[in-house]
Design goal:
The protein is α+β, with helices and mostly antiparallel strands and 350 residues long. The protein contains 2 helices and 12 strands. Keywords: Membrane, Transmembrane, Transmembrane helix.
Length: 350
Amino acid sequence: METKSASVKSQVGKRKLQIVVFSVIGSIIAIGAVTTLTVLLVHGKEPVLNGTSTSTVKISTSTRAATTTNTGAATTTSTGAATTTNTGTAPTTSTRVTTTTNTGAATTTNTGTAPTTSTRATTTTNTGAATTTSTGAATTTNTGTAPTTSTRAAMTTITYTIANSSQTIVSITSPGDPIVGLYNTSAGQPTGAYNGRYSGSAENPPKAIDGLLSTKYLNFGAQGYSGASLNDPGVNTGFFVTPTISTASVAVALLFATANDFPNRDPLTVTLEGTNATDVEALHLGSSWTLIYSGPTGIDRATAPARNTYMQQQGFFNTIPFRSYRLLVTSQRGRDSCVQYAEAQILGYI
């Protein structure tokens, strides 16, 4: 019995010794594992444990390290970072950018711009421009230009009114009309002579109908360029003209204007004839002309009027339309070498 008891005790002692040894070895291994794990974690490496002993240590390491590293880090890195990066960034980028770009920009560009362009531009262009162009331009062009033309004509015709006439009186003669200077010619008679009896181109026949008070027509008459003072040297001088404004005008008045100097050269009385001859040679025949008027020019006989000035128009009765007209001086104020006048306009209907 004692031998068995001792044997049992011996086996129990060996068991205890084995347990102690295993415990010590396990502790050493555990400490080494923890040390190794710590070193690996510090260097950013994941521990790799093998074997049974390692599995036991893995349980110890996994629980503590997992709690600290995996769960905590996972929470911080995965969830937190995910929330910050994915959730936070995504709403900022997707939602806000989408709203700003698509909705906001669309509203600003399409809606805002469209009304501005369509409505305002249409109003400004069609309504505004139409008003400016049609009304404004019409007023400027029609009203403005008409008075200018009328004023120019009015300067020549003054306000041509003939008693008991409802028709508009205009200047039948115009600058540029074909005109021929005459001398030694009287009413009802053929042309005695023409051209060559005036003081060059500066004072030739076209100046009598150019509408300018600053120019004049001067004719020396029968004496030529001698310059001698004679009684009425300008008698039987004048011109014939074919107006371009109409081939069938009705002359009813004359409008004279004095020249720049020498009142004795003023024409006081004249004759006006008309013809419908179309041949130039026929214009030199006395038989081609019909007397329309014989009378004063409107220049006062007793007192010399101002120089370069229009006189009162001289009206007369006539209903016959003519193609061409012949005007001849029948008297002048006094002794001089010639006759001269700034304007000798023929007025009438066209």
